[in-house]
Amino acid sequence: MEPINIPSFANRINVPSELSEEDFNYHHQGCHDKIPNITDFEIISTIGSGSFGEVFIVKEKSTQSIYALKKILYNLSSDPELIKKRAKRERDAMIICSNKNSKRAPKLYYAFLDQDDTSFNLVMEYISGGDFNSYCYKRMCDNNPFQLEEIKFYMAELVVCIENFHNLGFLHRDVKPENLMIDKDGHLVLCDFGSSKQIVSSSPPSIGSGSSSGPNGFSGLAATINNNTPPNFTSFLRNPNCSYTSYIGTPQYMAVEVVQGIVYSKLCDYWSLGAILYELVAGQALFVESPDTTEQKIRENIGNWRGLLNTAISKSQQPISKVAESLIRDLIAPERKRIDSGAIKKHPFFEGVDWQKISDRIETPPYTPAPSNPTDKSSFSIGGQ
């Protein structure tokens, strides 16, 4: 199901009316200084398609380097201003992740605005292992359910992905299997930052390296937020800039507070973690009853999450261990009771997990992709070889 975004009133009155090349164009430090255009790349194949654009494997003609290129068309949309805002969000978050050398996000090399076809283009590293959703689907088709140790590994990796993104100053707001990539070594990488939101902090933003045509190199970047206390309405009154109200994300992974349109914080991403954990241990989605389930029905299910969760756990066709159930209930919970990364790491579900090895990406993954060549796309569900 595609992500949706219904901006809050405050966001609607602050949408930029136009993005110029100076505002959007960017090249990473170490790349050549010339901002490329679409003619500088040879499109090899399509690996992804969604509501806001397409993703291609491309080859840069001058260097023969292989990249992934995300093209976001804005004038064909019924809401071009929203598309522009999403493109800028994604570009901004990717620059921060790249400048901080994050291993849990795709590295951004170039960003450029193509006036001819009215598109924003993001040129990033190509992660050939495919998305986690495609991998899960293949496992299901092969009648090869995840074993507990595999689930623990991937959930631990996801915890670190989310925690790192928060520490770089952002909420993701669309954590789901489709937005998790498997890199060449078998580790998870969080991607698709179009729904992300900068966490406002009183500290000055860290610009880092890289080059942009805009003033001061790059404007509006969020600083790392260090307070990891679970926010509630009281904390919102103390610091309203760290809480948000936009209805944004993919419905079946949205936290209840997001669906209800009330104040939420970075803990919304850990509700999504709980929804994904339930899918892996139960073999089915928590809030989607069938492929025909409507968005309205999903929202109703999330609104009635307490009764639905009790029923789903008791009637699950695959047995759910008590320790897994405990973690699910700590994540699919009211925001004021939902646990954050510190408490998640201490949960008995993760007993035996070496968090330092997970963080350093030296824990051995249960699966390692084996691409046959640099442009192999067989791990992707669209157009696989």
From TrEMBL:
SMART domains membership: S_TKc
Example GO biological process: cytoskeleton organization
Region Disordered: start-end pairs: 361-385
Superkingdom of this protein's organism: Eukaryota
Residues of the AGC-kinase C-terminal domain: 351-385
Keywords per UniProt: ATP-binding, Kinase, Nucleotide-binding, Phosphoprotein, Serine/threonine-protein kinase, Transferase
Major enzyme class: transferase
Chain ranges of the Protein kinase domain: 41-350
Catalytic reaction annotation: L-seryl-[protein] + ATP = O-phospho-L-seryl-[protein] + ADP + H(+); L-threonyl-[protein] + ATP = O-phospho-L-threonyl-[protein] + ADP + H(+)
EC number: 2.7.11.1
Biased composition (Polar residues): 373-385
Binding-site residues for ATP, renumbered to this chain: K70
SUPFAM superfamilies: Protein kinase-like (PK-like)
A GO molecular-function descriptor: ATP binding
PANTHER family cross-referenced by the UniProt entry: SERINE/THREONINE-PROTEIN KINASE (PTHR24356), SERINE_THREONINE-PROTEIN KINASE DDB_G0290859-RELATED (PTHR24356:SF302)
Family: Belongs to the protein kinase superfamily.
Protein name: non-specific serine/threonine protein kinase
Organism whose genome encodes this protein: Cavenderia fasciculata (Slime mold)
